[in-house]
Amino acid sequence: MKKAIKLLAFFAWALIALRSNAQKTGTKAYSDSYRPQIHFSPQAHWMNDPNGMVYFNHTYHLFFQYYPGATVWGPMHWGHATSTDLVHWKELSIALFPDSLGYIFSGSAVVDSNNTTGFGKNGKVPLVAIFTHHDPKGEKAGKNNFQNESLAYSLDAGKTWTKYAGNPVLKNPGIKDFRDPKVMWYKPGKKWVMTLATKDHITFYSSADLKDWKKESEFGKGLGAHGGVWECPDLFPLKLDGKEYWVLIVNLNPGGPNGGSATQYFIGQFDGNTFAPADNKLRWLDYGPDEYAGITWNNTGSRKIFLGWMSNWIYANQVPTKKWRNAMTVPRELSLKQVNGQLFVASKPVKELAALQKKSIDVSDGLTKGKLINGAATHFVLKFNLNKLNNYFVTLSNDVDEKLVFGYDKASNMYYIDRKQSGKTDFNPEFARIQYAPRLSSEVSSDVVLIVDAASIEAFADNGLSVMTCIFFPNKPYDHLQIQKGESVVIQNLKLAPMKSIW
Hints:
The protein is an all-beta fold and 503 residues long. It has helices spanning 136-140, 364-369, and strands spanning 5-12, 45-56, 59-67, 77-83, 90-91, 103-111, 127-134, 147-154, 162-163, 178-186, 191-198, 201-207, 214-219, 229-240, 243-253, 262-270, 275-277, 283-286, 292-296, 305-309, 324-325, 332-339, 342-349, 361-362, 380-386, 392-397, 403-409, 414-418, 434-438, 446-453, 456-461, 466-471, 480-486, 491-498. The chain has a 6-stranded antiparallel β-sheet. Strands 24-34-25-30-31-32 form a 6-stranded antiparallel β-sheet.
């Protein structure tokens, strides 16, 4: 080892038994290999994009692309889960099934408080889902209008859903990729605004009643990344120092910064008709390979809570899980930050996640003395600060020579995650790589939060300016942790908190 690198610490952890909760399905269904313990995953079968995320009656609703017939992608349904705390999730019955108009692709849900649709009856406030009907027969026939937008509504707080008899409400004008409507209430204009992915552009529509839609404008020509199809957009305001800005999220597949699918975003202004970006700077919400299709919950006020699918279309159908495939990221709260006159969206794990933390282990003294620290599980949060940045890296490993490394390289000013030797990687040749994220902050000091689960790591550096999500599949759980750093780096406030299982 080079003299410039000093071994700070080595943690040996004992595995702990998973804690049960009151969920009817029980812990056994959530204790199989690679099963996330602090992230939502379906009890069984295939899952991809989060859909219809809406907060209503003190409950967070998460719908998701779901195929109950296998652990690979198939005819899409809307699965459904709910939470009262963004942490513990209860999976419910399938909300929306394919029908004569096609599969149920991605979309959003809103609370129609003013009953603009007329769906509300006897004082009951309707929840309205706006989704894409994908006609597989039309696709197979080579048509270019096989995706259209439709509605469904619920009068019992999301338990049961009725599809609108007048579907589709927005017909495809002849664009092959015409999907993933994200709808919001635009208060200044007293109208609904739909942000729709249309090939590699965004088209904005408006409506007074969610049924009759008017095209407002298009966005995207010559702007942002265009390495693949634009999908799963989102539009919402955020404030910084009292000034309001608008953020437009556009998921992209392929063409991400580390290959495959990823989430880009734009910052600018929206006047109810047109989105005007402040610049043409390419920005990514998460630089890791395994956050995609991320959008925010509707009806949460000024708080914007983001959730993404924790996989990548390059290998999502091939990852080595058996009963289920794929999970969601932890929910993240979004905010605006300014760096050298430029605006960025920062992401931090929601504060509610702290409820899962067991007693934190202050290991600062242990590090300098080289002590072994016991008592942590394979799902935990690790936090630390650095007085200044130089080379450092954190290694998760096991006793069969498998490891995953998160670190910072000063020469390139990049964070990285190396999973080349992380365990099972041969299911896809693109998996075993090093992933990079630029450091956006200009501060001398830095902070890092690492959220580690059974088969994933989420890294939040510099107050969430640089974020990376990465999955992995070791043959044995990682039960060792090492931190190594350059001589001039001082690590402070180093704390490790084991996490309770959400199941």
